[in-house]
Every structure is written in C-alpha cells, then in structure tokens.
C-alpha cells in the first residue's frame, strides 16, 4: 500500500486501510482477505488486490493521478468470530453484546486474538461521509451462472436476503413393529410430508433468483426399528427481494398451519437469528460498471444478483455501493480447487478500474460527498 | 423349577431348562428372561413364569399330573450379543462365524461372559424331536392393538417378516446461495422426493398388518447453507406374509429405478443383514389357544400377527409353535412404564394352561411326536 502511494494503517479490529493522499471525494474499493478453512486463493483476496492495483495504476497515469482511491481489506467477513466484523466496525454499526468475548474455533476470544496481534487499543478506521462517495467490491462469483451463460463479467443488482427456519416436529416414539400405521404419531413422516409440500409450493412461487435448501434433517432417536418421536429440519431460502422472502415466509406459515390442523404431530418453527435482509446495489454505480464492462467485453457481461453475502451489503447501508463478479471455474469456491481463468481475472480488474475513473470523474463533479438517496 | 417337580439345568449358553419327569410326549413352554436396558418387568419374564406356573399347577392336579410340560427360559432374545442366541442354540441352528467372540456393550466377549458365569464347557440343551410335540410362548403384546380393539387375549397367527434397506443418495455438495435451482444436484431433495413417493405408494399396497418406517435420515454435511452432496435413509417394512414383503421390495426397486432415470442423483440401496423371514404359527395350536380363550373370555380375544420378533419364530422352524398375547397398557414396552392389568396377566395364564392341557391330551393321542407337517 505504501508503494502504491497510500497511507496504510491496521485498525483496532484488524482492517487494513490504505488512504490516498489526494484530497476531495474518494472512492473506497476493497474486499476481505480472510476465507474459509479450506478456501481458495481468490475468495476475497482478489478484490483487495484489484483495489490495490487500481490505486497504484491510477497514481502512475498523469490523467488519473489526482483521483482519490482508498483501499480496504476487511477483517473476518467469513465469521471466524462474527460475519462482517471489519465492514460493520468501519461503518460504526452496533456490535452484538460482548462482541469481543466471542470465541473462535481455538477457544480464544476475539479480544485475545486482537491483543495477540498487537492491535488492541488502536482506533477503529471509519467511513468518512465527507470523503467517501461510494464503495466498489469485486469478487469471484462463487457459483456457475456466468459460466453457464458464457459471460465473463457480472454486474451485481442485489445481494440476496437470507432467512433460516428451524422446523421442529413432536410426535410419539414407538416400536416400529407393533404400532399399526393408523395408531402412529410419526414425527419423521410428518417432516417428509411437509418438506415435500414446501418443495412443491416454493417451486410454484419462485422467481429466477429464488433458491431454497433443506440442509439439515434429524430424526430422534434415529434407529431403524423405532418410530421417530421427534424430528427437526432447517429450511433456508434466499431471494434478492424482501417482498418475495415475505411471501415465502407466509407460505411456510400456511403450510405448517395446514399440517398442524390435519395431523397428530405438533409442528413449530422459529426463524434462526442469522437471517440477512436483501440489499439493492446502487443503480448509478451499476450503470458505470455496465458501461465499463461493455467497453472491455462487448456482449460479454450480464446483470445478476449475488446469492452469497458480501461486505458490500454492509457498506450499502451507509454509502452507494456496487459489486462486480468474475466467473468461478465450475462454480467452485471455498475449496482449494477454486479458480478463475487468468484472462477473466485481468478483465475484471480493467473493468473495475475504468468504472472507478468514470465514477470519480462524474460523481465528484455532480454529487456532494456522502450518501445520495 | 425344582419345587415344581422339574429337573432344572442351565446349559452352556445360559438357557434355563426345566424338564418334566413325566415320560412321553411333552409340550415345551417358555419365553426369555432378558429385556432391553430400560425395559419393564413383564417383557419375556412373564412368559417364563406362565410356563413355570403351568408346570407346577398341572403337577398338583390328579387329572393333569401325568402330562409333561418342559419349561424354557431362553437367553439373550434381545441381542445383547446376538438376537435369539438361546433359542437358536436349543434348535441347533447354525451360529454366525466366531459367534462366541461377539462383544457386548461392556466390550466383553460372549465367551468371556459365559466363562464368568461358570457355564463354559456345559452341554447345550437341545430340542428333543422324540419328546417335544410343540412349543407355546406367551408374551405381552408390546403394542396397542388389543387395547384399541377392547380385547384381552391375542392368538398370534404370524410373526412378521422384517426387511431393512439402506438407501444412499449421491449428488454434488454446493453453496446454497450461489447455486441456482436448475443447476443443483441436491441429494437431500432427492431423498425427500423418494421418501414421499415410498410413503404414498406403500400406503396403496399395504395390508392391515403392513407397517413401514423411515427411522433414520442423514444429510451430509448437514449445514443450513450447504446443498447436501450425500444423503442416506433407512427404510424398514414388516408384514406377516413373505409374498407382500416381496411385492414391497419390488416396488422399492421400481421407485428407485424411476428416480435414477429422472434425476441427476445416483441412488443406490442395499438390504441390511438383519432382515427376518415372516413365520406362520401352527394352525392346530392356534385352534387350541382360541378355544381356550373363548372358554375363559367369551368374545374377548382376537387373532392377530406379531409385529415384533420372538423366540417362537426360531422354534417354529423345528416344531409346531404358537403364541398368546396379553394387552400392554398404552402399548408401552421396553420401558420401565411397561405394564398389564393384573386380571389380564391371570387370564393369559389360565388360557395358556387350558390350551396346554387340551393340546397334550389331543396331540399325544393323535400325532406322533416331532414335527407334524
């Protein structure tokens, strides 16, 4: 960062921020540099390197030397302690109670990890409404849509909202040999019926970008010769629009109510705490990204939602934000095998750089700094 | 047993046998005296006490004193080492390889347990074809059919056959946010669809005594945000008739073949080793039990299959065998709460005693000892 002409700091939670020495409106560009335990080389890190490369190359060109690009490498996007720690801190969002006492897999608290890294007592870096006119983040897609569509760049329209529900079934555990079918209160059978009904009904209500997943099922006690007395499943659904998430949640309510009315099994469900609201990306920034993509790869880009969460959804609550995707080979991510074609890695950076310049030239001229709503 | 005039022995596996000193054809009566870890006071033990009480009371009555009743208390019906150890040994059925090396929950082998009990080296007790004209076993029902029907005695027609299948689904694990529905290979979704299809189709093919259970489901890796790449379920079905079990198994084959042809998930299934063949109880012995039940409880008895396994299914392969059930309160068994009304316990013993006398009088007169087929 120092070589790129930035004033670099590591803040009190571990965010690495490189601030341009140019005055006036600045564009913030970045991503996260952590990944999952068996994650690949691009997830997050690629977006940080893009930002650094753009800051460096703009500084080397006389025509762009005066533009201000600040670079961010957010800490703990993936949630080793809790998700979006760095970007939430940067935006001064309220932290959970006792946030510094959250422990990681090694049992060490976040406060201990920060102290061990010698960041304790440092000031948090903060978004500067008087300076930052927008936030851009590039990322690998982590899915197979660009590849399937034969496109090289995705301009993100929305980051999907996520709702998780734990659905619990209470019946009566009994002997699988001596209990006739009409006398059974089989919690597992009720789970299968409801899961099937959800799959069928959600398919009718889904948009092109709706996804739903039953990732966990448990039958108690789980033995071949015992009728399950209790059962549990986790249903997750995602959509770019809160309105459709509301509709799907209302449908879940009505399917559970119908099953409760029809059967002898008590079915209850509760939203898990880790839901996320759907977040729209800024339209003006999308326009700049799209024009830049068309210039570098005519016909080779598309608009698309992000099915995964990103720091941009935190920043978007505070400053105009947008995202650019490059294709993931085979849709693979969070895996050592994660990769992107070298040409696509280069193209993504060129598109982001071009958009960055046009945004800074246009917005610095027309808009006041801070949140445009 | 000695007080009841029987010659009592404990054999080389732990069967306790009380042999009548009366010569000629004898009826063997008994059950098992083990139960499950949290089992109740009647399971198995009641049938042993019935046999002992019948041997004792017949010996006290001048009219029945010459009849021969041998009493059996089988070891390990429940399978602490392996199911039906005692009755299989008594019938000289082939043992599994290295049967004495099978270990129990405490890690001790069966051979060590037998040695610790000081039974090692004793001869096994054996069925005597020249003496034993039949086998009778009384047991608690362990289900709720008698109670639901308002009956006090069940005369068992068949012991159901059991088939267990492990069904495995192989898809592709992926990100639950970034993988659109059409690109998914969701092993859990395929499991839900097949489980639902099995439930629907089996209901159409079931007889009054058919039961089927999905007691275990597992999705891998089992996280809310990950599309399951693998899934597994265990399907068990039971029926008194092998022909219907064959039909259900053929239906499972065809449902799996259809699902494999339709989808992108590889589905494979295999029969678990612990299947049991359906076993018919002897018709003549059922007739004697029914007549005795009608005498003691007019209109208060019924014919019914046994949904659970019993030593009688082993004996039935070698000697005419039949079973009598008394009601389980609330259908509960294998639980400390297991119980039967005292009147019903007494009635069951009276019916079995009456049937025992009529069988010994009629069969000793008309049939040669040994297997009548």
Write a concise synopsis of the structure shown.
By secondary structure, chain A is of the alpha/beta class.
Question: Which value, in Å, is the CA radius of gyration of chain A?
Answer: 24 Å
Residue windows where pLDDT falls under 50 for at least 5 positions of chain A: 369-373
Fraction in beta strands of chain A: 25-35%
Quantity of strands of chain A, as a count: 15
Order of helices and strands of chain A: EEEHEHHEHEEEHEEEHEEHEHEH
- Largest protein interface? A-B, 58 and 58 residues
Structural class of chain A: alpha/beta
Explain what the structure shows.
2 copies of one chain form a homodimer. By secondary structure, chain A is of the alpha/beta class. Helix content of chain A is 32%, strand content 25%. Chain A has 9 helices and 15 strands. Chain A has helices at 45-60, 85-90, 110-116, 145-149, 187-205, 242-262, 283-296, 311-315, 342-366, and strands at residues 6-10, 16-20, 26-32, 68-74, 132-140, 153-159, 161-170, 174-175, 211-220, 226-227, 230-239, 266-271, 279-280, 301-306, 321-326. In chain A, strands 1, 2, 3, 4, 5, 6, 13, 14 and 15 form a 9-stranded mixed β-sheet that branches. In chain A, helix 5 (187-205) packs antiparallel against helix 6 (242-262) and helix 7 crosses helix 9. At the A-B interface, strand 8, helix 5, strand 9, strand 10 and strand 11 of A face strand 8, helix 5, strand 9, strand 10 and strand 11 of B.
């Amino acid at each position: 960062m120092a070589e790129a002409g930035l004033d670099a700091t590591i803040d009190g939670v571990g965010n690495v921020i490189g601030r341009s020495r140019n005055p006036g409106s600045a564009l913030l560009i970045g991503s996260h540099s952590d990944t999952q335990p068996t994650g690949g080389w691009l997830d997050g890190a690629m977006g940080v390197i893009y930002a650094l490369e753009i800051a460096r190359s703009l500084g080397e060109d006389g025509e762009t030397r005066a533009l201000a690009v600040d670079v961010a490498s957010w800490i703990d996007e993936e949630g080793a302690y809790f998700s979006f720690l760095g970007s939430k801190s940067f935006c001064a969002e309220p932290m959970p109670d006792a946030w510094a006492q959250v422990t990681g897999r090694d049992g060490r608290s976040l406060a201990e990890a920060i102290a061990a890294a010698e960041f304790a007592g440092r000031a948090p870096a903060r978004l500067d409404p008087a300076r930052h006119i927008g936030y851009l983040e590039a990322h690998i897609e982590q899915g197979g849509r660009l590849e399937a569509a034969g496109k090289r760049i995705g301009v993100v329209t929305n980051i999907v909202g996520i709702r998780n529900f734990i659905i619990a079934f209470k019946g009566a555990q009994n002997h699988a040999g001596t209990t006739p079918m009409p006398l059974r209160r089989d919690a597992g059978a009720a789970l299968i019926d409801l899961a099937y009904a959800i799959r069928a009904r959600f398919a009718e209500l889904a948009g092109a970008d709706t996804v739903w997943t039953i990732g966990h099922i448990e039958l108690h006690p789980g033995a071949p010769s015992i009728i399950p007395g209790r059962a549990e499943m986790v249903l997750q659904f995602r959509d770019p629009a809160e309105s459709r998430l509301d509709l799907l949640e209302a449908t879940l309510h009505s399917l559970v109510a119908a099953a409760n009315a029809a059967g002898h099994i008590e079915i209850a469900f509760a939203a898990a705490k880790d839901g996320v609201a759907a977040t729209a990306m800024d339209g003006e920034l999308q326009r700049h990204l799209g024009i830049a993509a068309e210039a570098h790869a005519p016909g080779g880009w598309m608009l698309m939602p992000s099915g995964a969460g990103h720091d941009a959804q935190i920043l978007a609550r505070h400053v105009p934000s947008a995202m650019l995707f490059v294709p993931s080979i085979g849709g693979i991510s969070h895996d050592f095998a994660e990769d992107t074609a070298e040409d696509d890695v280069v193209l993504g950076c060129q598109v982001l750089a071009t958009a960055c310049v046009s945004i800074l030239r246009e917005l610095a001229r027309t808009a006041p700094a801070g949140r445009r709503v």
